[in-house]
Amino acid sequence: MADKTFCKSCLDTVMVSEEVIQELVREADEEISKIVTNEIYSARLTQCSSCEFLQYGTTCSYSGCIVRYRAKFKNKGCPHTGKPKWDRMMGE
Ligand code: SF4
């Protein structure tokens, strides 16, 4: 019988390798005017790390986003509609 630990579609779309994440973060870092400071980035990831919606240590199950990528951007916020844990930075 097949191992049913993970949803088949998740393997392709949600779980990503460390190398892919690092490449995404590198690309984000090139958008210097669009990204937050390292302090804000760390604070956002701290919130994600203790969030019940973080899956596989990488992915927000609420939105499907890779949190280490999403948290880089000023214009992105935590997607939780009821109680977002970090805000986007308006007007910056
Ligand atoms: S983005 Fe928001 S909902 Fe998603 S894992 Fe981070 S804190 Fe949780």
Q: How do the strands of the widest beta sheet line up side by side?
A: 1-2
Order of helices and strands: HHHEEH
Proportion in helices: 25-40%
Unreliable segments of 5+ consecutive residues: 1-9
Total E-strand runs? 2
User: For the report, how would you describe the main beta sheet?
Assistant: 2 strands, antiparallel
Rg, alpha carbons: 14 Å
Q: Could you tell me the strand content as a percent range?
A: under 5%
N- and C-termini, Cα separation: 53 Å
**What is the typical, i.e. mean, pLDDT?**
86
The outline comes out as globular
Ligands bound here?
iron/sulfur cluster
Number of helices: 4
Which structural category fits the helices and strands? mainly alpha
Description:
The chain has helices at residues 8-13, 18-29, 38-49, 67-70; strands spanning 54-55, 59-60. With 92 residues, the chain is mainly α. Strand 1 (54-55) and strand 2 (59-60) form a beta hairpin. The N and C termini lie far apart (53 Å). Bound molecules: iron/sulfur cluster (SF4). Iron/sulfur cluster (SF4) is lined by residues 47-48, 51, 53-54, 60, 62-63, 67, 78-80, 85.
